[in-house]
Design brief:
- The chain has two domains: 1-88, no CATH class; 90-143.
- It contains five helices and no strands.
- The protein has helices spanning 2-27, 30-52, 71-89, 91-112, 124-141.
């Protein structure tokens, strides 16, 4: 139950962050805003680490396979694409498409067992759920 609550908070924060980042971009540039976002995230993470964890920061380099360390670089492009999509589509449409893409890619990752995730069997109800989401997008965008 707590995982559900945390996921809902995450989704809400991502929407608010996207709007904030889009406004910061209007005062500077997309890459300057993205750099600030990533730098401020680094500062918050280092502060939280100092207060709560204090394990070795270098332990992250023990991860296998090494390409898993690209998450931060992917994060920079996530910031960029969220800002651009919110600016071009508006927050509601952008988030709807972002969440649908997240769900579709996450399900493909599970189905194929990619990146060390346990492989899951195809379930029709999940496929139907994706279809319902896509129909929802069409209805939402309908003028």
């Amino acid at each position: 139950m707590i995982g559900l609550f945390i996921a809902l908070i995450s989704g809400a924060l991502m929407s608010v962050q996207g709007v904030f980042n889009t406004q910061v971009t209007k005062a500077s540039s997309i890459w300057a805003a993205s750099a600030f976002v990533q730098f401020s995230a680094l500062a918050v993470c280092l502060g939280a680490w100092l207060v709560t964890d204090r394990s070795s920061l270098l332990q992250v380099f023990q991860v296998q396979p090494r390409y898993m360390l690209l998450g931060g670089a992917i994060g920079a492009f996530i910031t960029y694409t969220v800002i651009r999509s919110m600016d071009m589509l508006g927050p509601a449409r952008a988030v709807m498409l972002i969440v649908t893409a997240q769900l579709a890619v996450a399900y493909v990752i599970e189905l194929m067992g990619l990146f060390g995730v346990e492989k899951q069997p195809w379930e029709w109800r999940k496929g139907i759920g994706m279809l319902v989401m896509i129909i929802g997008i069409v209805i939402f965008k309908w003028k």
